[in-house]
Amino acid sequence: MAEKKESKTREPKEAKEVKLPKEAKQLKEVSELKEVKVLAKPAARPEGNFVYVGQKGAMAYVLAVVTQFGMGANEVTIKARGKSISRAVDVAEIVRNRDTNIKLVSIGIATEEVVTQEGRPLKVSSIEIIVKK
């Protein structure tokens, strides 16, 4: 007949004491404080407001541009290379059509030379679209 299986409960194993590096101990002490002082400066961001267009859908980049304008930027640069160029143009047009205050400032095209993993040079087209509020 059917036998009942006993459920096994695991007992917690003894915790081993791990030696933490000096920096980790300091971080642990700092995290226990209510007020934390920032000791390091944040990494320097490049000058200007850039949106690099890649493989995501166009609306993700539209949101990024609108967010830049919402944060107080007067000018946003939309950049793309290769197959993403058409998506960058779409992003600029969607942003322009959604808000009549946003104007197209300039469009720059170029060819960049990139080195492949095999070490061969490869020419890739790129575009830079600047929109202004």
Reading the helices and strands in chain order gives HEHEHEE
In percent, how much strand structure appears in the residues? 25-35%
CATH C-level class of the domain at 50-132: Alpha Beta
Distance between the termini: 79 Å
Helix run count:
3
CATH superfamily of the domain at 50-132: Alba-like domain
Rg, rounded, reads 26 Å
Assembly state here?
single chain
> How are the strands ordered across the major sheet?
1-2-4-3
What average pLDDT do the residues reach? 79
**Helical residue percent band:** 25-40%
Main beta sheet: 4 strands, mixed
CATH architecture of the domain at 50-132: 2-Layer Sandwich
Outline: elongated
The CATH topology assignment of the domain at 50-132 is Translation Initiation Factor IF3
Structure description:
The chain has three helices and four strands. It is an alpha+beta fold and 133 residues long. It has a domain at 50-132: Translation Initiation Factor IF3. It has a four-stranded mixed beta sheet, covered by helices on one side. Helix 2 (58-70) links the parallel strand 1 (50-52) and strand 2 (75-81). The longest helix is centred in the C-terminal third of the chain and has 14 residues, at 85-98. It is elongated and about 45 Å long.
